[in-house]
Specification:
It holds the Pfam family Ald_Xan_dh_C. This protein is of the alpha+beta class. The chain contains 16 helices and 29 strands.
Length: 769
């Protein structure tokens, strides 16, 4: 991968001579845990140990749909070394829970609804014993025909007491009778992408003397996990404590109740610490995935290419349980037209239950699927009108003050035209040479079977958008405390560091506000006030905002005595490089001297402005803020073999403000690479509801060899006035946009429609007439 991205981001911030370590906002402050992670000493949940430890294993259903006739745990309980076996009968509290809608059982009791659904869990003195005991649980099934086609879910027998339809959003905006001179249509399918965490799920449960339990988990929403666990265990919330261990990356929710709840139940039943470390297969079976989606589109435009009306039908496959499908559907319907001005829009969106694996939150949920479809429609429109694909997009792009199809006015910066022009005008990479020495440039890699004469180059574009924070009335709030004593600052905030860089950002905020170099962020547990889930850029906004407010309150406490002594207001004092000075130079002292051994602290909250649910016509101010991105993809396609090589991805992004240049560049590169996987290789295959090849051999993640040159050609720093620091989330919108750009480039190279993601080789083959 090219280093140019990082160079682009850090060029202005890098000093000519390194005189001091980087500090404060705008500097590339390194992550505090970077060395430990690099050296392999960082404590992950899989590394935890406790005296008297037992090991857990979970029995999962081999069927996607079956009626449970009986569960016999006798043989498992009698095995030497087995300490406990739990099923649905051993759940003392609420048996059915869920992240969004409570419809997912802790253990299946009467019906199995998806492959891998948990039925029982075992605790034993050795991990092999636990697994053998789980396998010894005898379950008698009456196998039922699975419903795996979401279109059939409307007419199928109900898979759940709540029915098969989770949510329907009929969006109505403008004149239904409006018609354009040019009409293009398309049918699109988006596959099931797995979050594929670096580390499989693991955890440790330790019983407490008061009858409660402590869970050590790689959680991204510890307070939400605590509430879920307490309800299942029949305990009060203060009897359950979640301690967040090292999170080995999270590109989706890691609140997987099929792992953590059996763990806690076993610890409570045995009175011993119990550890679970999932295999990669169990990880694939247990956690949620991106929603597979079927999309039908019809775009109307005038003779000049200006959009007149967009009609769409969007069907999300939620799998066996609702989860966060309602949220994903709202994003898909609201952003179904993309960052374009569309005066008339009529969108029908549905999320339905099937017997496929459950779907849930993955970066850019809902927005990624529709982006691939509406950008394919823009390519079709350009082709039909004989226009350049970039030009037809520029004629329709959204700007600040325009209105979404939901009726919400875009009040945040929306520099979409500037982003598109930046990637369009960026120099194209050189063409590969047709020589044996450069065969590695061919699609297929070194010693590929292709011929240079069969390679075609294509250039394509993608424009994407995502919402930040929760939507439709979600109460987004975070709390933080900042303490300062003896020249050292401490931050307490339950915002989990998932790789997004919050811990680094918190240190930078305190350094910037208080002029203190040494800042420590306390490890997260549920004894701290809640900060919410680590997704949709929440912690940059609400948790970073809470830290900033707390630090400013401490700053006021620090400066007020000095201001009073010298007869001036605190606004006339500034803190720079650890020194406090007045505007007139009369006062000059250090922060340490001003502290004079005192301890100062403050607690603050940050809560953005409220939103509202979409109404019966899909209308409402549902989103706090929106981020935009443009990607230009350059690909080489072997039109005989259908193999695709992404040569370069040029990215321009609306970031509000760069808070940490190196960290921001890394987040964008990571997002683009995840989008590359969705475009070309990542598809968790589930024939008849069965997960096929649940491992990293059968599921093809992009590697460093697959990553193209990623050029961050422009960052638009137009600050969002309602966001703390004016910054926007950066990692989700490249995931949303890059698959659409890659598909657009393959269309340009082959002339084929490319209406499915990931792109299959046969979709890129060009046959001669």
């Amino acid at each position: 991968m090219s280093n140019e991205a990082a160079t682009v981001q850090t060029a202005e911030a890098a000093p000519e001579e390194e005189t001091a370590p980087p500090r404060g906002l705008g500097a590339s402050l390194p992550a505090a845990d970077a060395r430990a992670k690099t050296e392999g000493t960082f404590p992950y949940a899989a590394d935890l140990w406790a005296e008297g430890l037992l090991w857990a294993a979970v029995l999962r259903s081999p069927h996607p749909h079956a009626r449970i006739k009986s569960i016999d745990t006798t043989h498992a309980r009698e095995m030497p070394g087995v300490r406990a076996v739990v099923t649905h009968e051993d759940v003392p509290g609420t048996p059915v829970l869920g992240r969004g809608k409570a419809d997912r059982p802790v253990f299946a009791s009467e019906v199995v609804r998806h492959h891998g659904e948990p039925l029982a869990a075992v605790a034993a003195d050795h991990p092999d014993t636990a697994r053998m005991a789980a396998a010894a649980v005898i379950v008698e099934y009456e196998v039922l025909d699975p419903v795996t086609d979401p279109e059939q879910a409307f007419e199928a027998e109900p898979l759940h007491p709540d029915g098969n339809l989770i949510r329907h959003i009929p969006l109505r905006h403008g004149d239904a009778d409006a018609v354009g001179e040019v009409v293009v249509e398309g049918l699109y399918r988006i596959g099931r992408q797995d979050p594929a965490p670096i580390g499989a799920e693991a955890g440790l449960a330790v019983p407490r003397p008061d009858g409660g339990v402590e869970l050590y988990l790689a959680s991204t929403d510890p307070h939400g996990d605590r509430d879920t666990a307490a309800a299942a265990f029949g305990l009060q919330q203060d009897q359950v404590k979640i301690v967040v261990t090292g999170v080995p990356g999270a590109t989706a929710d890691r609140e997987d109740q099929s792992f953590q709840l059996p763990l806690g139940l076993l610890a409570l039943k045995t009175g011993c610490p119990v550890k679970l470390a999932a295999t990669r297969e169990e990880s694939f079976l247990g956690h949620t995935h991106r929603h597979p989606t079927l999309l039908r589109y019809r775009h109307h435009a005038d003779a000049e290419g200006k959009l007149v009306k967009v009609e769409a039908q969007i069907l999300l496959d939620a799998g066996a349980y609702a989860g966060t499908s309602s949220d994903a559907l709202a994003a898909a319907v609201a952003f179904a037209c993309g960052p374009y001005v569309v005066p008339n829009a009529f969108i029908e969106g549905w999320a339905v239950r099937t017997n496929n694996p459950p779907s849930g939150h993955v970066r850019g949920e809902g927005a990624m699927q529709v982006c691939a479809a509406y950008e394919a429609q823009m390519d079709k429109l350009a082709k039909k009108l004989g226009l350049d694909p970039a030009e037809v997009r520029l004629r329709n792009v959204m700007a600040t003050g325009d209105v979404l199809p939901t009726g919400q006015t875009v009040t945040c910066p929306a520099p979409v035209a500037e982003l598109l022009e930046a990637v369009r005008d960026f120099p194209l990479p050189p063409l590969p040479k047709d020589t044996p020495e450069d065969e590695w440039l061919l699609p297929g890699g070194p010693e590929g079977a292709g011929e240079p004469a069969a390679v075609r180059r294509g250039v394509g574009y993608g424009l994407g958008m995502v919402h930040m924070l929760g939507a439709e009335g979600a109460d987004e709030v975070s709390t933080a405390t900042v303490r300062v004593q003896n020249g050292v600052a401490t931050v307490l905030c339950a915002a989990v560091e998932t790789g997004q860089g919050f811990s680094t950002l918190a240190r930078q905020i305190v350094q910037e506000t208080l002029g203190i170099d040494e800042v420590h962020v306390v490890p997260v547990d549920t004894d701290q006030p809640p900060a919410g889930a680590g997704c949709r850029g929440r912690h940059t906004w609400v948790s970073g905002g809470a830290v900033e407010r707390a630090a400013k309150m401490v700053r006021t406490q620090l400066l007020q005595p000095l201001a009073h002594k010298f007869g001036m207001s605190t606004e006339l004092l500034q803190i720079t490089d650890g020194k406090i000075t007045s505007y007139d130079g009369v006062l000059s002292t250090t922060v340490t001297e001003a502290m004079d051994g005192k301890e100062l602290w403050a607690t603050a909250q940050c809560r953005p402005h409220p939103t509202e649910p979409l109404d019966d016509a899909g209308q409402g101010d549902a989103f706090v803020g929106i981020a935009f991105c443009a990607v230009r993809a350059v690909v080489d396609v072997d039109i005989e073999l259908g193999s695709v090589r992404v040569v370069e991805l040029a990215v321009a992004q609306d970031v509000g403000r760069v808070l940490n240049p190196a960290q921001l560049a890394a987040r964008i590169e990571a997002g683009v690479t995840q989008g590359l996987g969705a475009a070309l290789t990542e598809n968790l295959r589930t024939p008849r509801g069965l997960i096929r090849h649940p491992d990293l051999t059968g599921y093809a993640l992009p590697t460093a060899l697959d990553a193209p040159d990623i050029r961050i050609v422009k960052l638009v720093e137009e600050r969002d006035v309602v966001a703390p620091f004016g910054a926007k989330a950066v990692s989700a919108v490249p995931v949303v946009t890059s698959p659409a750009a890659i598909a657009s480039a393959v269309r340009a190279a082959t002339g084929r429609p490319v209406n499915r993601l990931p792109i299959r080789p046969q979709a890129a083959v060009v046959t001669s007439n």
